[in-house]
Amino acid sequence: MLKTSFHTDTQRLWGGLYGDVGTRNSLVKNHSAPSHQPEMQAPLTFEVLSKLYLADRAGEQKPTTLSSTQFTHGVIGSILQELDLRTHTREDLVALRDQLVMTRKPSTVNQMLMKVSAVLNWAVNNGHLIKAFDKKLKFTKGIESTRKAFSQDQIGMLMDHASRLPEASWKRWLLSLGVITGGRLNEISQLCVTDIQTLESGVVVIHINELGEGKSIKNKRSERQVPLTDGAYGFDLQAFMRYVETCKQSGNESLAQIGYRPAGEWANQQAIPQALGECYVKGLVFHSLRHSLASLMQAKGVPTAHAQAVMGHASGTITFDTYGSGVPVEIIAELLRVIFSAAPSSLHHPSHLS
């Protein structure tokens, strides 16, 4: 009887334990199993990262830079498509680079890759990616600039061409100012009547700045005052000042009669080839005027700080004030007068053709 009771109690005890295990197995099967299933994550594409990046950084970029960034991001996104950048490899980025260079110059591809790196490194720093494989992607060969400098004789031909245009034509002054100031096309194209200033010393300058709606300069060091040298290659300062006064009287704040892009197309595709004729070679564009002035100053031994004051460039060792350089404008005006005095004059003086 004792044996039977022990057997019954044992069955009851183990049966309860087995029953509990069965219940637990049922719970595990019904509730725990799904927690072991990996969650499906949407691919972290370049398009997604671009939106996150721009939401954080767009406010730090100038409108023109932001537009360029958005365009580049669109191109990159269309190439990488659904690639999950959480698992991207070096080979993926090399393939991207190789595809970009099929229809673009290496120098252009390098600029685009810099924007890719900016996004990837931002993503790493903000915890979206563990690692980026963008190091040493850029091309180091075949990136020489196709932009050339005009010879001094060619500059004379360009100024002669400009001199033949009417005094009331902005195209005449667009080309002339590019020659004697080395200003960038967008800097010249956005000049307002208030940017033409006569200082107490009597020096007339163009003030390159971004004060005003829609105006933009490359960086803070680009703001500067560049003297206008009367007689440089035949430049007629008084005729230009009459043009400025005419704009004032008509109520036009802007000196330009055509926009930035049409101005570039006219200068690069029409004016420069026509002015140079048989002397024209591919690669000579409006920006080449900037290279030409820089080369002239270098050839004449102009100190680096003075040249940077004219061009709006800076090294890390130069301290710049509000107008782009600590060098007094009067000193810049004198050095430009000296180097231009040795340059060939235009074949015709503008005043004879107004």
From TrEMBL:
Gene3D superfamilies: 1.10.150.130, Intergrase catalytic core (1.10.443.10)
Family: Belongs to the 'phage' integrase family.
Entry annotated with the keyword DNA-binding: yes
Segments forming domain Tyr recombinase: 145-337
Record's protein name: Tyrosine-type recombinase/integrase
PROSITE patterns recorded: TYR_RECOMBINASE (PS51898)
InterPro entries the UniProt entry points to: DNA_brk_join_enz, Integrase-like_cat_sf, Integrase_catalytic, Integrase_recombinase_N, Tyrosine_recombinase_XerCD
Species assigned in the record: Pseudomonas petrae
Keywords on record: DNA integration, DNA recombination, DNA-binding
SUPFAM superfamilies cross-referenced by the UniProt entry: DNA breaking-rejoining enzymes
